[in-house]
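SAMPLE LOG
Freezer: B-3
Tube label: C17
Construct: single chain, 179 aa
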Amino acid sequence: MPKTYRVDVVSDTHGSLSDPLMEALDGADLIVHAGDFTSVSNYRRLCEVARVEACLGNNDWNMDYGPAVKSKLQFLYQGLRWQVCHYEERLDLLVTDIAICGHTHRPFVRHDLGERVLVMNPGSPTFPRSQAGATIGRIMVQAPEKPGGKGEIVSAKIIQLEPDNEQLSPWERWLFKRR
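STRUCTURE (predicted):
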């Protein structure tokens, strides 16, 4: 039976990798970041956890993450075509199986083009803008049965992170109490 891989999807960390976020990422096979790291050291820290595929966000333009981090990224992972862009409207759903975006800090998972393409925005673990609070995405993919074959999406969901009250501002504490 083909192996299943865990892909954790993050966006808009804005210079902060909280303890709940890092705990949630532990054990990921791949981390996809949809931009707005705003910290080269945070990018490097995520690279120590797992392989990272990342794009630039609107707040990353003065950062040097290296040549692999571009404004729009396409790659193949476990027989599936992935595309990552900070802005949803710049994704080309005709050439991908899984499309990841960020920017809005509002999480969603949906299928487009007759269920052919999975589209995800993981929200933000740092500055959430929805009642879901701090979130990441998680996609489970099954490797192709044969080399060069197509993999399969097993599941895709939004994960709510538990707040780390010691790291929260008073405004963030108020927000999490409302959940």
